[in-house]
Fold this protein.
Amino acid sequence: MTKLFNDKEFWKTAVRLTIPVALQNLLTSSFTLADTLLVSSLGTVALSSVGMIGQWSWLMTMVLVGFCSATTVFISQFWGIKDNEKIKRISGISIIFAIVVSLIFTAISFIIPQGVVRMFNSDPQVIETGVMYLKIVAFSYIPVALTNIFAAILRSVENVKLPMYASAFTTVLNIFLDYCMIFGKFGFSKMGVRGAALATVISAWAGTILIIVISLLQKNILIGHFKEYFSFSKNELSSYLIKAAPVVLNEGMWGAGTFIFNIIFGNMGYEYFSALTILRSFENIAFVIFIGISSAASVMIGKSIGQGKIEKGLLESKRFMIIVPVLAVIISVFIVIFRGQLVSIFNMGNNVSQTAISTAQTLMLIYAVAFPFRMMPYLEIVAIFRSGGDTITGAKFELLTLWALAVPATLLAVYVFKAPFIVAFAVMYVFEDIPKNIFSFLFYRSKKWIKPVTQEGKDAYDKYKRERIGDE
C-alpha cells in the first residue's frame, strides 16, 4: 500500500487538479445553497416551488454533463500529445451542442411553464410560485450551458483555476443579489421569489462574461479564430458523436430517471419535497470533493492513456479507487453525527413546517449510509471508463440499474404497496446503487474500458495486451 501511494508527482498533480475543481463546485453548490436558505425564509411553498424548478434546471445540466464528459474524453487525450488544433475543433463542436441544449430548455420553459411545474405538484400555490420563478430563471440557461462547456474545456487542458475564479465571483454576486432582491436591501425593491430568480440570471451571465474576458487576457485555449473552432470535418463530428451519444444518453436518461423520482416524491406532498430540497442542497456540498477527484482522475488517466502510458494510467486508476471510498466513509460519518444541526439551518426563521424538517433529518441519515455506494460507480463510470475511451459500458450500467430496477421498484413501492415517503426514498437507493457497484467493479477489473482515441495510445495498448493481458 505504501509503495502504491509513494509518488510525489501523483499527489502533486492530483491535488493541483482536484482542489480548484472541488472549490469551483463547492462555490456552485453554495450558490444553490444560498438560494435555498434565503428562499426558505419565504415559507414551505416557496421553498418547494423553487426546489422543483431547480430539478428542471438540473435535468438540463445532466444533458450538458454528457457533452462535457465527451469533450473531456477527447481533449484530455489530445492534450497528452499537445494537439491544439484538434482540441479547438472538438471545443467548437461542444459549444454548438451546449447552446442547442440550452435553447431547447429555455423554449420549453417559456411555452409550457405550467406543464413543467405540474409534473411535480398540482397545488395552485406551488404552480403559481413555480411559474413565476421559471419564467425569469430560464434566461440563465444559455450562460449556464456556456460556462459548463468552457469549464470542461479548460479543465481538460489542466487550466482549473479560471473556472474556479468565475464560480467564486458568480457565487458571491448571487448571494449579494439574493439578499438585496429577495428582501429589498440596499435600495432594491422587495421582490421575494422573483428576486431570487433575477439574481440567478444576472450572476449566471456575469460568470460567463468573466470567463471570456479573462480568457482574452490570458490568450488561453478558448481564444482563437472562428475557423479554428468551427472548421471541423464530418469525420471529426462523427467521431465526437460516436463517443458523445452514449454519454449524453447516459447522463440524459439518468437525469430523466432522477427527474421521475422527483415527480413521484413531489406528488407525495410539497412538504416532503421541501425536505428533499434541503437534502439536495447538502448532497451537492458533500459531492463537491468527489467531482474534483473524478475530474483530476479523468484528466490524469486520459492524458496517460493518450500518451501511450498504459501502465501509468492503470496505476493512477488504482490509487483513485482507494482514495474515494475512504473519503466517502469519513463524510458519511460526519453527516450522521451532524445531520440535526445541518437541517436546522433551514428553519432559523421557523417558516418551514416541522414535517419537512423531521423528514429532512431522516433523509440525511439514509443518504449518509448510501453515500460510499454512490461514489464508487461515479468514479468508475464518469472518470475511469470515460477517460480510458469507453463511453458505452458505463451508460449501460447506469441505464440498467436505474430504469430496469430502481424506477420500477420505486413506482411499485409508492403506487402498489403504498409505502410511506421515507421507505420509497430508501428503495430508490437500494435498487440503483448495489447492482451498479457490482457491475462497475467487475468491469473495472477486466481492463476492457481502455480504448484510446490517439494513435499513440492505440499502439501502446496493442503492445500492452500482447505483453501483459495475454499472460494473465
Remarks:
- DSSP finds 17 helices and no strands in the chain.
